[in-house]
């Protein structure tokens, strides 16, 4: 059998809500057994069933809104199904996966569930049977419910082999993985003690413990105590898990299932069958019994069951070995979780192998001497046992009351390659983006608080690996939060500030601004010359592997033509400050920065809807648009730089706070001075000889117009650039059609079919930069939500903001100047994520930070509770769901016409009122939840059956509508309001 990795776990058992709580309960030697809650049944009415057991504190809690399940359907669902859905979500999160990312995948679901008690309780009154009870009461739906709500298309089946159900489910899941039926599988089981019925059976058979406690292998053992429980594991083929860097709890080396056949009784255990299933599992795992260090036994604590199991264990494991085989059973802590018993033992064993310590078995201090454990090569775990280095093997047994036996062989996970553990080094300092998402504003606040509390308990250290894990797990829900941080202290403080900001004052609503309703539309603005400075983007180069990779690629392309690398010059202090000359260095350096920034962002998933380049910036813009290759652009930039360096001195540039038309009279007397750039309505740059610029400046100053001499040593974008233009015109350029819109600053508009060939680049050098017109065209045509400046420091975004040319777009800059670092790049990505972008997060992190860090699981709402001590009614009653009154089938439906407003329902639109009443009746929602914008599928959880029920109720309430087919209604089922508008139109048409 191939190896299967356990990569994710979630569970809830009596006294242990969650994986860590479960491990703490085991290591603390505590029990989860307590009195029967009055919610289940009155224990005094059923003395034969006992008054104690293991019960989940919140078995009735279910966040139905999160899973888009109507209150009425949630109330009709078997509690087993309600427990499984959040458990599956948390298990996938624990596996390092955002559950939504698996939608549409062939992930398998295998669930052990024993019996169908909910169905017997709810479907026995035939007069109250409903479709919702039909689907909600079927034990077979336990796995299907997960597959449906998570959109998982692999094998999906419920398994009922009584007490061995969940371990058999794990066995089937492993086989499906090995057969290639799925690549990921959820496997486990669930049990809820809904009534005393099975307890009465145990009592009549003499199997019930007087105090409701299982005491496995103890001299005090006197029978079974029943318990609740739910547990799921996420399984993958080990090779796949290792290749993807998954955290592996343990490895399933092999498993086997068999049957007692015709033995000495239908419900009596069979020693020989147990021996056979153990040996079969070891054969499949390729190991011998002597290699197995410990066995998590079935261990119910019944006299006969313990005796037969110990005989079978001894027969198999009582072979020559260095130490006796240790045994224990989690039923001493939890009681018998029946359909979930196998997964309870499986998870305990996986955690023991993961932590390399085996918890003691409760009640072991009074070992049953009649079991002769020592003689059989066995020893009871009376205290925790630390596991030695190297691989350790363990077994897990689970035996069904009907004779179906299962045994699994687990091993410690293989040692992962040693990686730098950055979180333990407080000074590691790499920036990351910590993300949290939730389904509502209140849920976001709740989960921000949970993450803050969990992270505060960690040792202080770097945050990058934690951030990366949050990006993989916590990003799939509509309400989004993102925070950049370098260490856990900064991260916790930021999360707590966010919680405080999102905590409303008493009586105030929760803020609703964390949900993006679309994706950001991004445009890149590439900076030209004048933005350079010594050591530009050095901090980003140090901290961003992606930027480093792309800068080095640009440097290599430029070096092939320059004959030297620019890396040290650009990232050190060899680049002169703005305007100090050296175009043969500055221009290639700025191109390398622009190219590397743009490629870094696109690798991160920030794909521009359009690009614009200012002067020299147009070369990197052309590469980003797919017009030029990196090599072609590098050749042009180096040629331009060398030709510029050969120009005679004496030229310069002046910025003027006035429009070009205002300057016409002043320029008439100085023909050598021209407009070099129109950056805004009152933002113009002049170019020409220095003496002529000085005379123009004096004249403008006399008119009260502000001027500023730029430190450029050349008269760019003027006739003095003719030698450069001639050299570029002679270049061999083979432009491709633009792959995305280009706002041309040569033409001052969006580029049409004009090629960006040698003639374009020659003209672009001599002619003015029409930035203001080009940006205006981009904003009109593309309507960007965000403008990102691509350059070593802000220049264009400030010009655009000053000119009022932004069109409401938000400005971002991943390299904001000399103090810029990787945190600014991270903040750019965070801002876009908050606005709806789904980044390629891996590109933000260095390989040493791409490790799994466990995070606190999603915290579901506990506000909604669904329980019914007498659940055999057709619809949820006010007793069952007091906060959501249900309408019974006998309630007469009031007719509502357009002429008779229903003031009681609140509103003067009777058609809308009728739709709202029908929706609340079918779905069980409170009226205030059913607003015009509510979508039937996404927000209200309506399926095809509910739509048919809604149609019937609407027709009964609005007789003037007549009969409307579902096909006619389908286009109007976008929302409650759209359905009301459609029906209103039908009434008007039929009244005409």
Describe the 3D structure.
- With 992 residues, the chain is α/β, with parallel strands linked by helices.
- 37% of the residues lie in helices and 15% in strands.
- It contains 33 helices and 28 strands.
- The strands form six sheets. Strands 1, 2, 5, 6, 7, 8, 9, 10, 11, 13, 15 and 16 form a twelve-stranded mixed β-sheet that branches. Strands 26-25-20-19-27-28 form a six-stranded mixed β-sheet, sandwiched between helices.
- The longest helix is centred in the middle third of the chain and has 21 residues, at 583-603.
Compile the SSE list and pairings.
Layout: E1 4-13, E2 16-17, H1 19-27, E3 33-35, E4 52-54, H2 71-76, H3 79-94, E5 108-113, H4 117-123, H5 131-136, H6 141-150, E6 156-159, H7 165-178, E7 184-191, H8 197-205, E8 229-237, H9 238-243, E9 250-259, H10 271-285, E10 292-296, H11 303-317, E11 325-328, H12 331-334, H13 341-355, E12 357-358, E13 378-380, E14 385-386, E15 393-399, E16 404-412, E17 432-438, H14 441-456, H15 464-473, E18 479-485, H16 488-501, E19 522-526, H17 538-543, H18 545-562, H19 567-571, H20 583-603, E20 610-613, H21 617-624, H22 630-645, E21 651-656, H23 660-668, E22 674-680, E23 683-689, H24 690-702, E24 707-710, H25 722-729, E25 742-744, E26 749-750, H26 758-766, H27 771-782, E27 786-790, H28 796-803, E28 810-812, H29 822-834, H30 910-923, H31 944-957, H32 966-969, H33 976-991
Parallel strand pairs: 5-6, 5-7, 10-11, 10-15, 11-13, 19-20, 19-27, 20-25, 27-28
Antiparallel strand pairs: 1-2, 1-8, 1-9, 3-4, 7-8, 9-16, 12-14, 15-16, 17-18, 21-23, 21-24, 22-23, 25-26
